[in-house]
User: Fold this.
Amino acid sequence: MIVRIMGEGQVKLADSHVVELNELDDVLLKEMESGDGPGFRTTLHALLDKVRELGTPLPDDSLEPSELILPAPDASLEDVRAMLSDDGLIPN
Assistant:
């Protein structure tokens, strides 16, 4: 799976890691629903760090279609809310 982190680029991530990312995504969704800004910020950074850790960066000139687009690390709660589907940022 190709994942884009807005403002950073793309990484290739094995599909097997989606379950692990979904756990963080579920926490992020709950924090957004409750308006927990500090928790949201911490979990968003944890999610993006996990993608960076588990993924392999693609070259900057790569034009692969992204299967998943994640917000930039400095995205606001409102920015991320606009990107959400019913499943959160990462489809189940």
Remarks:
- The first helix runs from residue 18 to 34.
- Helices lie at 18-34, 37-54, 77-83.
- The radius of gyration is 12 Å.
